[in-house]
């Protein structure tokens, strides 16, 4: 089949990565899958014209509102993949809630990353329960073998002669929902007392106005560094060299950055929100913090307890292998797409 996949495709964001991975799964089954950026289209009529002009036979959308609204009233069958902010945040807005319900009613199927996400959707739209399936994100990491660690530190402005450098990395698209400034004050205060600890925030600009705030804040925050996004293979290599990966989001669907760190044998410290708690068991596969002060306490305990660190990375790796199989994800999407024939 000739398939259209509509998603928010800002480079090196979670949605773009997920879309590319699903496209690969479908093309491996012999389909043609074309990605289109949801931000380029105003409404369903533009997508309807695209479908007619490019002769698509079926469609998929990532994010029930941002992508799904464009397929409303579509002449071809379609499926939906929940994004995270659609179910966690957009559901609170009356008009978005109405649109998402209408889209879900038309969709042949919907995919949720977690059981919790499915339950939340079912509670809002009970009629859709039998068409929502759960498929966790499939994870495959590919760290670069030619990654230059010294150049990475130099670009970040991190002194290379620091004794016992302890680098934390926070990976996110720079927008308010990801809350990259949540830990900046406490981390900078910690750095003043222990100059070997550093926090690198890495990610693409999603909200330019917010990025200006981030840059101004970080200028006044010793020990915290802002880097532009880097190719995924290099990012994976950088993660392997860091002490821990951090997630401070207000809301998450399922963080690929967290899962990739787990797969790379790197400890994760994540804000205790439903999306993170769904994949991290505290002090077993990672550490969950309720506030910035607890983040520092947990970080210090991890730095001083090699046994705990080893336990966490071992169990996290096993968890990813068992529950986030790339091969299992491929089989699921190749099976679901048959419902659109």
TrEMBL record:
Annotated transmembrane regions: none
Molecular function terms, GO-annotated: glycosyltransferase activity
Domain Glycosyl transferase family: 174-317
Alphabetic keyword roster: Glycosyltransferase, Transferase
Gene3D superfamilies for this protein: Glycogen Phosphorylase B
Protein name per UniProt: Glycosyltransferase 1 domain-containing protein 1 isoform A
């Amino acid at each position: 089949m000739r398939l259209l996949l509509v998603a928010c495709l800002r480079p090196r964001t979670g949605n773009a990565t997920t879309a590319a991975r699903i496209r690969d799964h479908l093309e491996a089954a012999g389909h043609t899958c074309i990605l289109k950026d949801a931000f380029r289209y105003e409404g369903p009529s533009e997508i309807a014209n695209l479908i007619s002009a490019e002769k698509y036979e079926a469609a998929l959308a990532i994010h029930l509102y941002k992508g799904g609204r464009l397929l409303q009233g579509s002449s071809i069958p379609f499926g939906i993949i929940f994004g995270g902010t659609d179910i966690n945040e957009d559901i609170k807005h009356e008009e978005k809630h109405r649109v998402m319900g209408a889209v879900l009613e038309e969709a042949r199927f919907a995919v949720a990353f977690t059981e919790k996400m499915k339950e939340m959707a079912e509670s809002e739209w009970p009629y859709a329960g039998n068409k929502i399936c759960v498929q966790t994100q499939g994870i495959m990491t590919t760290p670069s073998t030619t990654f230059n660690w010294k150049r990475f530190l130099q670009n970040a402005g991190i002194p290379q002669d620091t004794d016992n450098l302890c680098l934390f990395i926070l990976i996110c698209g720079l927008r308010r929902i990801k809350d990259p400034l949540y830990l900046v004050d406490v981390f900078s205060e910690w750095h003043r007392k222990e100059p070997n600890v550093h926090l690198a925030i890495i990610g693409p600009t999603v909200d330019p106005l917010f990025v200006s705030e981030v840059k101004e804040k970080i200028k006044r925050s010793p020990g915290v560094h802002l880097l532009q996004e880097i190719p995924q293979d290099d990012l994976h290599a950088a993660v392997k060299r860091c002490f821990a990966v951090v997630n401070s989001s207000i809301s998450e669907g399922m963080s690929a950055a967290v899962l990739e760190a787990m797969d790379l044998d790197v400890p994760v410290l994540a804000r205790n929100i439903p999306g993170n708690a769904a994949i991290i068991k505290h002090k077993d596969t990672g550490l969950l913090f309720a506030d910035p002060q607890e983040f520092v306490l947990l970080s210090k305990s991890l730095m001083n307890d090699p046994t705990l660190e080893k336990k966490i990375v071992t169990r996290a790796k096993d968890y990813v292998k068992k529950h986030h199989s790339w091969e299992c994800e491929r089989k699921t999407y190749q099976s679901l797409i048959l419902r659109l024939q």
